[in-house]
Amino acid sequence: xxxxxxxxxxxxxxxxxxxxxxxxxxxxxxxxxxxxxxxxxxxxxxxxxxxxxxxxxxxxxxxxxxxxxxxxxxxxxxxxxxxxxxxxxxxxxxxxxxxxxxxxxxxxxxxxxxxxxxxxxxxxxxxxxxxxxxxxxxxxxxxxxxxxxxxxxxxxxxxxxxxxxxxxxxxxxxxxxxxxxxxxxxxxxxxxxxxxxxxxxxxxxxxxxxxxxxxxxxxxxxxxxxxxxxxxxxxxxxxxxxxxxxxxxxxxxxxxxxxxxxxxxxxxxxxxxxxxxxxxxxxxxxxxxxxxxxxxxxxxxxxxxxxxxxxxxxxxxxxxxxxxxxxxxxx
Length: 331
Hints:
Layout: H1 7-14, E1 21-24, E2 31-34, H2 36-42, H3 46-49, H4 60-75, E3 80-88, E4 94-106, E5 109-116, E6 134-139, E7 145-148, H5 152-156, H6 174-190, E8 193-201, E9 207-216, E10 225-230, H7 237-260, H8 272-282, H9 287-294, H10 298-312, H11 317-329
Antiparallel strand pairs: 1-2, 1-5, 3-4, 4-5, 6-7, 6-10, 8-9, 9-10
């Protein structure tokens, strides 16, 4: 049995997203709550939705599939999935929409979250990147690793310090080197991004199958390179294009922040998520905008910022930005 989240935990998660968002209990398969956007789509009020069986808003055609998928989520066999569902409104009308469903853990509680894609989306469609590990790497002009985010240990089983000063090509399986060189040459010329499947050396000479997004960080020859690496390797063809798009967006933000905001602390002490937040903060985005863009609650963003400030030895956003600008101007 999973632990049921408190109403305050559910409210915090639901309030963090502009997307139509539903929370449900994994064991009893009843709704724990929904935000305003989801209630409007379903034609129900938040008060009338809490405790209602999830299958009551699903067409009879999809109910058995929804129940089976929920069992897989509850067992931990899958972390999430995407599907097209037929939703049933109280007035008897039905409509078809895309939905993302994923397993969520917060404050020691596990529950399900569903985002419904409205018929005319107002916001860009998000990928549930919370279940995807992404690592940022930036090299020098000789393609020696210069910066690496702290998440790399979760993918390659070695500490971030292990990779500082290591030749980038030494991480790749020999059979992958030529493909990577071709991709690096292409992005150096057109300034775009390339995503390719690679085998990277992990701890104990094991090889890890990853997706690797590469981008040129400058116009020199050879250029400094930025890489975003993800261990996610199995998804259907429809999800593949969306995943690559999101990896390019998230990865571009991460390596861009790492390159433009050199910290006065070891780079490996910042996670990929913290690099994203730093990048967006430097752009002038507000906390609530950062939270919406990264699918986080504002309090979670503030917690990340508190940790970042501590690593930089500052106590506020103003001190942090001033320190970044001062240190950057001296490099």
